[in-house]
Amino acid sequence: MNALLREILDVHGGLERWRRYNKVEATIVSGGGFFPLKGVLQDRNPRRMTVWLHEERSSVTPYGAPDQRTMFTPDRIAIEKLDGTVVAQRYAPRDSFAGHQMHTPWDPLHRAYFNGEAVWTYLTTPFLLAMDGVRVEETEAWREGTETWRVLRAYFPSWMETHCMVQDFFFGEDMMLRRHDYSVNVAGGFPAAQLTSGYIEADGIRLPSLRRAYTRGPDRRPITDMLMVSIDFSEVAFA
Q1: Could you tell me which of 206, 196, 195 has the C-alpha nearest to residue 236?
Q2: Parent domain of 154
Q3: Does pTM surpass 0.85?
Q4: 157 near 143, Cβ under 8 Å?
Q5: What distance in Å separates the CA atoms of residue 17 and residue 208, rounded to the nearest whole number?
Q6: Each residue of 134-187: pLDDT tens digit?
Q7: What is the distance between the alpha carbons of residues 138 and 153, in angstroms, rounded to a whole number?
Q8: Model pLDDT for residues 95-130, shown as the tens digit of each residue
Q9: Tell me, what CATH number does 233's domain have?
Q10: Closest listed residue to residue 160, CA positions, set 238, 58, 233, 239
Q11: What's the domain of life for this entry (predicted)?
Q12: Which site in 27, 153, 231, 239 is 20 to 30 Å from 200, CA atoms measured?
């Protein structure tokens, strides 16, 4: 394993502890200017997110109605009643984004897919970097004010549904995640820089509770007057 990644995982709670858990649940509140661009209604009501740690699977409740939830896996996105009755579903969901650009409207299944793959990625970071098929390398350090952030570039396998296949993760001197860069392939591939802060600890695992994603300029810096997505995590519990 990459030496820097090993140190990062240890600081975040350790791979041994991580492997003892099967899933994590968290309350999320999301917002930002990206969703209105997609014609999607977005509110600040808290929702409960469940993410499975060792398979790509996630669900959010409620979704669209108080008695509904989503169920995301790489090959299927569904909206279900709480008893499992299917309201709507789509197989090979990534194919439905073909030709999409920033302003292409989304339907509820598009929004559910995006939520499923994005929050799965966030709540498994940085441990997903040690998953089978993921390759990482350290790239040039990033200078941010008086701080120097070390950067891990991750190359994800084709079976994994995430924002894009190559992503950069920036870590401070304390080995905590400061920033996450990627391209949003389901919306025309626009470049994003997500700033992370507000570290919390849940069941021995450390993670940022605040994420703010901005469009990324040609100088690689976030354009902070263009907040695209905000996510606040609370009441996090591993099981």
Answers
A1: 206
A2: 3-238
A3: yes
A4: no
A5: 18
A6: 999 999 999 999 999 999 999 999 999 999 999 999 999 999 999 999 999 999
A7: 6
A8: 999 999 999 999 999 999 999 999 999 999 999 999
A9: 2.50.20.10
A10: 58
A11: Bacteria
A12: 153
